[in-house]
Amino acid sequence: MSPRHVLVTGAAGHIGSHVCAHLAETGHRVTATDRIPAPAGAADRYLTGDLRDRDFVAGLMDGVDAVVHLAAIPSPHGYPDDEIFTANAHSAYLVLDEAGRAGAGRAVVASSLSVLGLAWAGRDLSPAYAPVDEDHPILAEDPYALSKQAAEATAAMAHRRWGIDVVALRFPFVGTGDRLAGHVRRTRADPAETRRELWAWLDTRDAARVCLAGLRAPLRGHHVLNAVAPTTMSDRPTAELLAKFHPGTELRAALPGRTTPFAMDRCAALLGFVPRHTEPEASP
């Protein structure tokens, strides 16, 4: 599949702006949407509105044959819990349902490794095992994680209901340049800072590439995939970090050096995606 006209939600965001530019560079027509006025970018059409308005969402689908849904409240901070959950779950439902109704053939949805429940829990939690694959139990106890779990379930429903093929990408912290460098510096100064994230990251340029891979891959159905860089942000060995901060985690495979504790094999096998940026930028 090679979609020609792609809708990108959350287009004014950090990932969204990179996705729009990458799609345009690779010959796609882009319809973009966000709640704020259009930034300078690569979209052929930009519409401002609320993704909780079904009529607005339906209007976005005119001529679209694929969707990249990135819009969401990005963390469980700054909004009431119920608004975080309802905004994220409702918008994911409307975008995927309207895409299916309109006959779009493919959707890529931004999920998050936070769906596991480790990152934003009210207490320290540890993964049951590592490498952490997509089958790991979800331990969500915060509204953001729950909203991502709902989005993944909605993606599966949309495929069953409409036949649209959906790839849900579980992203870690995503950044490049100063944004990534600052996160790396904090992690290396004190790895406890990102212990709940398991020190994972992905360069924003690779996030854009994996979204395109999700649109083009010859697959059917609904798939949830980890999309991470192969190394951690820390400068310490991964096994050492896990032993210190997550001593109860079962190691099911060797994690030499700074290997990420998240499994990457399904994303590589299904999408043919291998990150190009394998070392985080520790300085601007």
From TrEMBL:
Keywords: NAD, Oxidoreductase
NAD keyword on record: yes
One Pfam family per UniProt: Epimerase
Gene3D superfamilies: NAD(P)-binding Rossmann-like Domain
Keyword Metal-binding tagged: no
Domain named NAD-dependent epimerase/dehydratase: residues: 6-221
Similarity field: Belongs to the NAD(P)-dependent epimerase/dehydratase family.
Name the UniProt record assigns to this protein: NAD(P)-dependent oxidoreductase
Species assigned in the record: Actinomadura parmotrematis
